[in-house]
Amino acid sequence: MSLVDSLCGVPSATFRVTEKRTRKSSKVQVIRLGEDISVNATTLSEYCFREADGIAHDVMTLLGAVKFADRMLRRHHSKNWARRIHIEIPVFKPNAWLLPKVHETLTQCLNYLTGDDWTFAFVERSGSAPAQQQSPLSDISLGNRDIVFVPFSHGLDSYGQVRLLQLAEPETEVVCVYADARAGGGHHGALKRKRLTGVQYVGVPVKVRPFRHPEGSFRSRPFMFYLLASLGAIASGGNRVMIPENGQGSMGGSLVTTGHEPKHRSCYPGFTVRLSKFLEALTGKRVTFYHPALFDTKGAVLRSLAKRGEDVRAILHGHPSCSCDARLASRDGKMYHCGICGNCLLRRAAEHNAQFDGATEYLFSDLTAPTLENALRPGKSNVKLTFFADLARNGARDMQRLADIGATPQHRITQTAAVDLARTTGDDIAVTTIKLMGLLEQHALEWSEFLAKCGQDSWISRIARG
């Protein structure tokens, strides 16, 4: 850490990726290939349909190094969100990585996503890239270029949008990049009971050793899964990547920020545009990201599934939304959605709007209750009420703040966001403004109806009012 960084309270670190044993240094943190991060060449073949040229392995090393650094270097949340991170990476194709445009677009992409200051240095890696096996995606017809790759969590949004895509485009082949970090045994085991007919699943070919106390924000996570999906799209010739998040999830974090944290841009088009520019600079090929539910609420997505004849209650039962650690949201040994985090409140408002109340079991089940404790379902568990009270307060107020924007025509935040969206998507500003206002007004309506159902004297309504 430099003297300037230290005085300013900015965490700073240099990471060096190496294949060799290296002495520890107070100035450089070593990341060992094969120990701290490892690349599975067999799994990697799922993304690359031809012999490796080294770029694919280089990308995996980059992803592992970014994840390692992001999790290792803790933020000073109470002082300064941003960090300065420099990574030295050995690559098989240095001529590609040393192009100024590659470094420029890579750092712009990560800086925009995480709110940090990233820099990289690339050096030539000894030897040649390990040979890849033939792709196991045997059902994918490489002569058919109508293929869509999807960063896939098996949550409600990702599952719902894949189903809607299948119903709208039955001839399109879908490849899901399984992104749920909670499936500890690997994606294949986790999906045995959940597979969609006609969909291929591919795993993450890079692993990073676990940390005891990792940095919890992990803003770089979408960089890994979107980039993996893009690599598959480029290799297959399909070049289409679908981002399944609904509009509230895609843009809510950019319109409503928390404290001193920068805007949350994991599903925002500004990030995918920057990622596309990086990929084009690196590979010479363009990836098309599209956001089919960008201007839809979660309630609208549920209504669309119901209109197409899907069993929405079964979908809700099998596909989670909760952001709370499942171990905290248990009762009598059974896991529940917590019911009060931001994701759960959004889900509950959507269920009410689409007339599917009662489809999900929640730990805090009775939102008409006068207190948080009274909302808790009966049973035995060590529930941390203080933790959940903070969770509920943040979730409800964020939902209300987004609704307040939608209830105010010509709001400055809306106008600024519309200009930014139009710039990144290439659409007309006036049309984008109308679409964005429609989304925000629908969110405000759904949230207002949900609070009315809970009652003005309920604890959740009082929290929303501040």
UniProtKB/TrEMBL annotation:
Q: What InterPro entries is this protein classified in? A: Rossmann-like_a/b/a_fold
Q: What is this protein called?
A: 7-cyano-7-deazaguanine synthase (Queuosine biosynthesis)
> What is the species of this protein?
Paraburkholderia tropica
